Amino acid sequence: MFLLRHTHPILLVAAVILACVLRLLTLGSSLGHDEAYTLEAFAPQPYERIVTSYAAPNNHILHSLMVRCSVQLLGTESWAVRLPAFAAGILAVPLIFVLARNLFLSASAGLIAAWMLAMMPVHILYSQAARGYSLSILLAILALYAIHRAVTEGPFRQWISFGLWGSLAPGRCRVVHFTWFHSASGVC
Questions:
Q1: CA gap 119, 159 in Å, rounded
Q2: How far is CA 170 from CA 37, 103, 129, 148, in A?
Q3: pLDDT digits over 110-164, tens only?
Q4: What are the residue ranges spanned by the domains of the chain?
């Protein structure tokens, strides 16, 4: 048990490295239709236009803002356009470890969750595509962690944190409002 407890950080780092490797494989391949549309229709727009215009549901607002920043800093190569989705996908792996460890009071449960997410084919795909789906998963993990802490520990700042992460998720896609409403109705 002692040895296993000390290997948890190593196993978590290994899961993050594996997640990086699996998601890097096609990061530089040519853009798909929706990705190219994001690059052409939303990334060149001024920031205020990205936030205030929702002419098409293809505009994952928060993701489009991040793509705009990435393209401004790194250029329009496909890997640069996909970098925000890649980063969100990688960040989700250690964060789901934290969420599962706290939900189940077990670092082993956290490791299982991290390894499952690191190798989950659909999450790998979402993390390789210049779309807002991996960002939505990341925001959902953060919101779930905040609401878990708010319910179990009760500090008001955790409710504010849940509100923050929950309100940013619609910046990925406005339909997410319905998801949060449904989730909140199950908690209250």
A1: 31
A2: 20, 25, 19, 20
A3: 999 999 999 999 999 999 999 999 999 999 999 899 889 888 887 777 788 888 8
A4: 2-187
C-alpha gyration radius of the chain: 18
Q: What DSSP character marks residue 56?
A: S
Amino acid at 94: P
CB 85 within 8 A of CB 133: yes
DSSP 76-115: S-HHHHHHHHHHHHHHHHHHHHHHHHHHHT-HHHHHHHHH
Q: Distance between CA 44 and CA 39 in Å, rounded?
A: 7
Structure-block tokens of residue 111: 């490791």
The pTM (predicted TM-score) of the whole model is 0.86
- Rounded Cα–Cα distance for residues 29 and 36 (Å): 12
With tokens 């393209």, the residue in question is 71
Of 98, 63, 105, 100, the closest CA to residue 84 belongs to 63
**pLDDT (tens digit per residue) in 28-45:** 999 999 999 999 999 999
Q: How many Å apart are CA 140 and CA 170, to the nearest integer? A: 11
Residue linked to tokens 């978590």: 12
Instruction: Report the C-alpha gap between 12 and 55 in whole angstroms.
Output: 41
